[in-house]
Amino acid sequence: MTSHSTDSHTRARTRKSSTGGAPPVQVLEAPPAQVIVDGVPVDLSELPDVVALDTPRDGLPSVIATQSGLERCAAALAAGRGSAAIDTERASGYRYGQRAFLVQIRREDAGTWLIDPEPFDDLAIINDALDGVEWILHAASQDLPCLSELGMWPSSLFDTELAARIAGLPRVGLGAVIESLLGYSLAKEHSAADWSTRPLPEAWLRYAALDVEVLAELEEEMLELLESTGKLEYARQEFAALVAAGPAEPRVDPWRRTHGAHTLRNRGQLAAVRELWLARDALAEKRDIAPGRLIPDSAIIAAAKAMPTTVPDLLNLPGFHGRAAKRDAPRWLRALQTARGTDDLPPMHLPNDAPPPPRAWADRDLTAAERLATARNRLAALSTELTIPAENLLTPDYLRRLCWHPPAPITVESVSAALADLGARPWQVGKTAAVLTDALLHPEPLPAKEPKPMDARALP
Question: How large is the average pLDDT for residues 320-349?
Answer without folding.
Answer: 94
